[in-house]
Design goal:
This protein is of the alpha+beta class. It folds into 3 domains: 137 residues, Butyryl-Coa Dehydrogenase, subunit A, domain 1, CATH 1.10.540; 114 residues, Butyryl-CoA Dehydrogenase, subunit A, domain 2, CATH 2.40.110; 146 residues, Up-down Bundle (Butyryl-CoA Dehydrogenase, subunit A, domain 3), CATH 1.20.140. The chain contains 10 helices and 10 strands. The strands form 3 sheets. It has a 4-stranded mixed beta sheet with strand order 1-4-5-8. A 4-stranded antiparallel beta sheet has the order 2-3-7-6, with no helix packed on it. The chain is globular and about 80 Å long. The N and C termini lie close together (9 Å). The N terminus is likely disordered. Keywords: FAD, Flavoprotein, Oxidoreductase. Belongs to the acyl-CoA dehydrogenase family. Its cofactor is FAD. Pfam families: Acyl-CoA_dh_1, Acyl-CoA_dh_M.
């Protein structure tokens, strides 16, 4: 059941508006000018990517500048627990922040979105589960935006079915030794640290009741390698990679959270990712609809504004209806998660709806632009590209529908 709207919730939203105003002022005054001065890098071509397929060194340097300046301004770590030096903000703010950023700055850009730590490769609530010694070793530069991480869970044969993972961690004296392969790991080509999930108890894993643990691994460790960068369709490179771990040795304090209970940490991260993607998709869809609305109001054919043709205007009305529905759905989901601490069913439904909604909005908005909708200049292609990708990332629509159906058949509304 959704959490009720309360006076406290209304006050939180007012505070969020103040925060959003400060954040967008920072991006407008610091990040956008930086982006403009280096516009030649951001054509998604050879200057954007290195020969390896990863981000080029100049792009990495600009991302580093944005992270560090945002951390100094107090925005980068807003979702990190307060006891670790972050803002301690919750799901309601997380959704609102990402929705606002994507709605304001749109697709085919990366620098504005480096202003806030991303759950899968920057400081997040996972930091709360680090050992005291690990915090002392890595947390300060991590919170400052100087270093980044990756969330190494997916494998070639263990994507949607994480229990099928084959990466193993075995005890060797006081250390752990990790061996295995990870795939589709975002930010792995650039990361300084990897949250690596591995099987630590085969019997528990086989019974699907535990036996998976998480370890924080420096990517400079002997035996750790980025074997290749995965280039997604339409791009010369990518931000995801394939990792191999060959007898990678880490100390006992590298364990993140409780032994054999890493799957709980993974669910925490993935839930955050699904809510993030809801905000991303609602924001991107809102941006696209504004572009389309402005275009059809000006574009004329046969002496008439194309906005006056129902074949053009009605699809945009459908976009508005679906964006409103997705936004309302995601806000309620975020509120429920903040109030109860768990909303797997609601997050699954929200992720399915908002990602598919975003794809539909981009299809319509590209269509009403005609041939111009297919050009790089209008940036619509990149929004469509992102929407298509996130229908698979952090749980495909098919897997989530299976989970939703099980709840429904089990009697849940």
């Amino acid at each position: 059941m959704a959490a009720p709207v309360t006076a406290r919730h209304s006050a939180v939203l007012a505070d969020v508006e103040d925060l959003l105003g400060g954040l967008t002022d920072f991006v407008d005054s610091v990040v956008v000018p930086l982006e403009a001065r280096h516009a030649e890098l951001f054509d998604q071509g050879r200057r954007f990517y290195a020969e390896s397929g990863a981000y080029s060194d100049p792009v990495r340097e600009l991302l580093l500048q944005v992270r560090e300046r945002s951390a100094a301004a107090g925005y980068y770590t807003m979702f990190v627990p307060e006891e670790l030096g972050g803002g301690g903000l919750g799901p309601v703010t997380l959704y609102e922040v990402w929705r606002r950023l994507y709605s304001r700055y749109g697709p085919a850009r990366i620098l504005p979105f480096a202003s806030v730590a991303h759950w899968s490769y920057a400081p997040s609530s996972l930091c709360r589960h680090l050992s005291a010694r690990t915090r002392d070793e890595m947390l300060e530069p991590y919170l400052a935006g100087t270093t980044t991480s990756c969330f190494a869970m997916s494998e070639p044969d263990a994507g949607s079915d994480a229990w099928a993972m084959t990466t193993r961690a075995r005890r060797d004296g006081e250390d752990w030794v990790l061996t295995g392969t990870k795939q589709w790991i975002t930010n792995s080509p650039e990361a300084d640290w990897a949250f690596v999930f591995a099987v630590t108890d085969e019997e528990q894993r086989a019974a699907r009741r535990g036996g998976i643990s998480c370890f924080l691994v420096p990517t400079s460790a002997p035996g750790f390698a980025v074997d290749s960068v995965i280039a997604l369709f339409g791009q010369a490179g990518g931000h995801e990679g394939i990792l191999s771990l060959t007898d990678v040795r880490v100390p006992a304090h590298a364990l993140v959270g409780a032994l054999h209970q890493g799957f709980d940490l993974a669910l925490e991260g993935v839930s955050t990712g699904r809510l993030y993607n809801a905000g991303r998709c609602v924001g991107l869809a809102d941006w696209a609809l504004r572009q389309a609305g402005a275009y059809v109001a000006e574009r004329r054919t046969f002496g008439t504004r194309i906005a006056d043709y129902q074949g053009v205007s009605f699809p945009l009305a459908d976009c508005a209806v679906e964006i409103y529905a997705g936004d309302a759905m995601a806000r309620e989901c975020a509120r429920t998660l903040e109030a109860t601490g768990a909303a797997h069913h609601e997050i699954a439904m929200t992720k399915v709806y908002t990602t598919e909604m975003c794809s539909r909005v981009y299809e319509r908005c590209m269509q009403v632009h005609g041939g111009m909708g297919l050009t790089n200049e209008l940036r619509l292609y990149d929004g469509w590209h992102q929407a298509r990708i996130v229908r698979i990332a952090d749980g495909s629509a098919e897997i989530l529908r299976r989970n939703i159906a099980r709840k429904v058949i089990g009697g849940r509304r």
